[in-house]
Write a structure and sequence with these properties.
The structure holds 2 protein chains of 2 kinds.
Chain A lengths: L1 H15 L1 E2 L5 H11 L4 H12 L5 H43 L4 H30 E3 L7 E3 L1 H15 L8 H14 L3
Antiparallel strand pairs in A: 2-3
Chain B lengths: L2 H14 L9 H12 L4 H13 L2 E2 H40 L7 H29 L3 H16 L10 H10 L1 H27 L1
Helix pairs in contact in B: 1-4, 3-4, 3-8, 6-8
The chains are: A mainly alpha, B mainly alpha.
Chain lengths: ~190, ~200
């Protein structure tokens, strides 16, 4: 019965949160308050762990919350609950798009969507950059401390990815190398 | 290899290599799905991200369903989505069971800063590539710059969403709102240019 409720609660999160994983946070907060399954402090830990482990953050959080409530079955059920509405909605939209691929109206709408989508991806990148490239505050109130090693590492990887031969290296190799550099040089 | 197994395995790899939001998946998707497998084009990938951002559910999952469905129908959509979440379920279960202080270890924190530096470079490189296919004329460049400024700027100003006007404003400035707005701009621009061309013809 608890598993059924867990599936239902996460299906609601999947249905109503739009966007990246952080969009699920407010829904999880109200879920915790309503059901008493976890406190806000526990949720903060789960968010921190979800951000620092492989996998899309929203999925990680569902798995973590599910596990903390009902063990491994809970982890699986909560994750399946989260993705079920997505699968249904996207399959309907994808089917529709396939049918109307040739339509001039759909084509005209996507003509505006593509640069917007590219901009939102760029914006997400900028937000990550701002969170790791510098910190505001410190000794003086409006002091900005630039983290040069981090900026340099990012720049080197970006340039390598544009290079004629180096760009053949798999993107994942860059992530792994950056993790090692960060750990060794204590970023 | 079995087609569905291939689909599951490819997306499981993608899930295991994503950090943070689904955006970091972009360059890996470009490499694996566009260049290696040919399951989608760069343009289609942008479309999926666009739709994935204004429909229910998180972006990584939506994009996986889209690509899987396009390649192998409904079953393909389901298999690709199960693939992308599979590593999360395994890794998070292990961490929750044995290492709940995972994020407190200094070595993890340092490595994570390094990973984020790579994520910035990966996203930037993905955007450069998408820009080459998607930013070809004045309107598309205008939409790109406008949305980027609005998306970044909306974080700097505080909107009182308790008033009706504030609610409307924060709805428009949300990623979903910006996507819908850009669709309208694109449609209007195409209509206007067609009208102008039609006018010249007659």
């Amino acid at each position: 019965m608890k598993l059924l409720l867990l599936f239902y609660e996460f299906a609601k999160v999947g249905l109503f949160s739009v966007g990246g994983g952080l969009a699920t946070v407010p829904f999880l907060q109200s879920m915790g308050e309503k059901t008493g399954w976890f406190t806000n402090a526990q949720l903060s830990t789960m968010i921190a762990v979800s951000e620092s482990t492989p996998g899309p953050m929203g999925v990680n959080m569902a798995t973590y919350v599910g596990y903390s409530i009902s063990g491994i079955p809970g982890a699986v059920i909560a994750t399946l609950g989260l993705i079920t509405p997505s699968i249904a909605v996207i399959i309907i939209i994808a089917g529709f798009l396939q049918k109307f691929r040739q339509s001039k109206t759909v084509d005209a709408v996507f003509y505006g969507l593509r640069p917007a989508s590219t901009a939102l991806i760029a914006s997400a990148g900028l937000s990550v950059a701002m969170s790791v490239f510098w910190t505001v505050g410190g000794s003086a109130e409006h002091e900005i401390a630039l983290h040069w090693p981090v900026i340099l590492l990012s720049l080197v990887i970006f340039l390598a990815m544009q290079h004629k031969t180096l760009k053949k290296i798999h993107p994942v190799a860059f992530i792994a190398a950056a993790a090692v550099v960060g750990a060794v040089f204590q970023f | 290899m079995n087609i569905y197994l291939d689909l599951f395995w490819t997306f499981a790899k993608m899930g295991a290599c994503t950090f943070g939001g689904g955006y970091a998946m972009l360059p890996i998707l470009q490499r694996e799905v566009v260049e290696k497998k040919g399951w989608a084009t760069d343009e289609e990938l942008t479309d999926y991200y666009a739709v994935g951002q204004c429909t229910p559910g998180i972006i990584a999952v939506n994009t996986a369903t889209f690509i899987g469905f396009k390649y192998k129908g409904i079953l393909g959509g389901i298999i690709a989505t199960l693939g992308v979440v599979f590593p999360s379920v395994v890794i998070i279960t292990l961490i929750a069971a044995f290492l709940s202080q995972f994020d407190q270890y200094p070595v993890v924190q340092h490595a994570l800063v390094g990973i984020n530096a790579a994520v910035v470079a990966l996203i930037a490189s993905g955007v450069v590539k998408l820009g080459k296919t998607n930013l070809k004329d004045l309107v598309s460049v205008g939409v790109f710059v406008g949305v980027l400024l609005l998306a970044q700027g909306s974080g700097l100003i505080s909107i009182d969403s308790s008033t009706p006007l504030g609610m409307l404003l924060s709805l428009i400035l949300s990623p979903a709102g910006l996507i819908v707005l850009s669709g309208v701009v694109g449609y209007t621009a195409r209509r206007l240019s067609r009208l102008a061309k039609g006018g010249e013809g007659t």
